Each structure stands twice: as C-alpha cells, then as structure tokens.
Amino acid sequence: FRLALIQLHVSAVKSDNLQRACGLVREASAKGAKVVALPECFNSPYGTQYFKEYAEKIPGESTQKLSEVASECKVYLIGGRSIPEEDGGKLYNTCTVFGPDGAMLAKHRKVHLFDINIPGKIQFKESETLSPGNSFSVFDTPYCKVGLGICYDMRFAEMAQVYGQKGCQLLIYPGAFNMTTGPAHWELLQRGRAVDNQVYVATVSPARDEKASYVAWGHSTVVNPWGEVIAKAGAEETVVYTDIDLNKLTEIRQQIPILSQKRCDLYGIEMKK
Hints:
By secondary structure, the protein is of the alpha/beta class. It contains 7 helices and 15 strands. Strands 1, 2, 3, 4, 5, 6 and 15 form a 7-stranded mixed beta sheet that branches. The model has no long low-confidence stretch (mean pLDDT 95). It comes from Rostratula benghalensis (greater painted-snipe).
C-alpha cells in the first residue's frame, strides 16, 4: 500500500493550516496513497506558549475537518498532533486517526513529555503546560496493524517493542525534532526502532521555518525493517510517498528470526496498561 507523509509548513493561522493540510491530503489521495500522515503540531506553532491558545476539545473544529477529508478521500488519516487537546482542565499532545468512513479509530496522547536541557543549545519543558498520556495506541487497516507514538515517544525502545508484540508492522511517529537533536538522532532512532522490531517506521515532521521560535528539523522519513531509509524529505514543505511492502517484512523476519529467538525465560517487556 502507498503511504504519504505530509511535511507541512505551519503558520500561526490555524484556519490556513487546516485548509492547506486538507488540500495536501486530497493531493496524496489522488496519487494513490491509502494511509496519509500529518506532522506533529500541524495546525499551530510548536511551543509551550502556544498550547493553551490553540487548544481544542476532541471532537472539535480541527478533528471534524480531518474526519471529513478522510471520508472524502477514502484514506486512513493520521492527524499528527492535530492540536493541543483540552480535556478536564488539562492539556495533552494528542494525535487522532480517522478511517475512510470518517470515524475516529484512535486517539494517542503523547506518553513521554519532552523535558530536556542541553546547555548552550536548547532547553524545552512540555510538562510546564502539558500532561502525559497513559496508554498505547494501535489501529487496524486492511493492510496491517499500525502503532502510534509522538516525537519524544520514539526514544523509548520499550514502547516500540510493545507495539511489535501486539502485531504492529508499521510504526508512525509524527514528530518535530529540533536543529540540535534532529541531525544527531532523528534518523538514528528510526533505524534502531525498525531493526530492533523488524517493522516499517515512518516519521512526519513539520517543514522547517527558520523564523519560528522553535525550528523543526524536517526530514520526514520512512525506514524499512532492514534499517534502510527508503524515502526522505529535505527541509521544505513537501509530500513524501513510499510503497510499504509487507512481503519484504515477512522475508526479513524469516531470514533473521529474532522475534521467535527472544529469550523470554531471561527477559521481557511488560505492558502495564
């Protein structure tokens, strides 16, 4: 099946972001994409100072638009972190997924909050405004089972291993690595998660905006289960297409059968919720 990653240039105007995102979903559908993903924070600037201002309920304005365009185009649509979600007085970094009938299939709240301090380079603390999610998020398509994470979630190998145990063959991480962590770890982490679990891994970033207070690295990428980069964007707004070959995945798992060779008598990953 064909996967499309929409590396969107995000402005401060929510309505413009929504309109352009929906237009690019239509373009991707016209080019044969069956699964389409938007980047983290696609309809608002990324930054703790913006989260409360742009927050919405789910369902709400943004998710309604995503539902409508998914139904119109008959695609599985991963809505990036469409919005900061407001629920019960708390804010969450939330990704919604809609099926070809417009129904919401999954809602993933970012589990690991991005609280870092690299002296002289970048300091960021999502927990100043956001609360963490507490669950894994998996949805089914006619092609394969898909596991969801958001950006910083990708650094935690245990989460990807749980998705592998649950039968996922594709992991999708909407993300917005920055100009420090992006060149250092963006591709490295994707290849690691793909090889460790013998799955496809796709990451979808906003396009780079040098004038923004938080500058995203870009480089939306797809990695196959062998650890090879099979599609990759630059920094500009673009749509990345790749064909996901599940026969290739099966072949790799047969050649190097690590999933059946795990020593579960010595170690294991436990999902608590």
